[in-house]
Every structure is written in C-alpha cells, then in structure tokens.
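haha ok so turns out i had the wrong file open the whole time. this is the CORRECT one, sorry everyone. sequence first:
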Amino acid sequence: MDTLRFLLERRGDIAQMTLEHVFLVAVSIALAVAIGVPLGILLTRRPSLASPVIGFANVMQTIPSLALFGFLIPVPLIGGIGNRTAIVALALYALLPLLRNTYAGIQSVDPSVVEAGRGMGMTDLQRLRLIEIPLALPTVLAGVRISTVNAIGLATIAAAIGAGGLGTLIFRGLSMVDSRLILAGAVPAAVLALVADGLLGRFEKRFGWDR
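then structure:
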C-alpha cells in the first residue's frame, strides 16, 4: 500500500517521464524504419552487400548499450548529452531486426509469383511494390515489433546521458537505494512494452498480415 500511495503521489512525474520515454522510442523507431526497410530492400537487389551490411548490424547489437551511448557522446553532430545521442543509439540497436526481417521477408517470396509478375510485363519497381512488399509485410512488421519492444527497454539506459524518460526514476532510485522509485520507472516501462507489442499485434491481425 505504501508503494501504491507513493506511485499515486508521483503520478505527475511518472506521466511526464513516460511521455519522454515514448518520444525517444517513437523517434528512434521511425528513424530505424526509414533506414532499415529501404536498406533491406536494396540488399535483395545487391546480394553481395547483404553479408557485410547485416554483419555490421550484428556487431552493433553486441556493443553494450551504455558503452554505445558513451561512444556516441563525442561524435560531432550526433553526439553530446541529451536525447539526440540516445535516439541515434536506439535507432542503431533497432536496425538489425528491421534490416534482417525486411531482407528475409522479400527473399522468402515465392520466385514463381515474382516470375508471374515479370511475365505480365511488370517492371522491377512494380513487382516490388505490388508483389514482394505486400507478401513480405508480416515479416517486416514482426521486425518492427521486436525493435519497438527492445527500444522501450533500452531507452531506460538513456537517462544515464541526460535523455530523460523512465530510466531517470530507475537511476534515481538506485542512487538513493529506494525501491519505490525503481518500481516507478520499471513498471510503466514494462507496461509500455506490453502495450506496444499488443497494439502492433492487433495491427497485424486487423489487416490480415499475421500468419
């Protein structure tokens, strides 16, 4: 009861930091989608580039999140203390699922279907737009779900570089050895992850893209 009372008393701070958290995740995922999906499509047209590009994305995933935030701070234009650095780092972490799922989704399209489109006189762009992308959408959207849920968790680390969000409460609770503050940041972050996963899952079903 004491913890619940504490959470209610701090609901204003929690709501504000939740909005900051959502902003970080939304912008970083939008940036990752804008880069990862077109790049994944390009790799299907340039297979020789697929291995090194996906390999680079794999390497980015192996770097500890806090270390990556630190590495980016001194980088000109994208570095510094604040949410800009956090957004870049989160977007880099989100790239691998998006890139890999886009590439795998388009590669998994039945070649006979693509060949049928070619036989109908479709250009490569028309086959991509009318056949390959629609058929690959379930796999691409699965990558978006994975990236979004991961980003919500990783965004809590962004508070370490002054980016705000729910991680601020968690770090404050750790420094003060206050479990109530830790819960005030951790519980809303977990709820956000569940809500995001559920909404994206419903989005798939609504449009008939789930398998």
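DSSP finds nine helices and no strands in the chain.
again sry for the mixup
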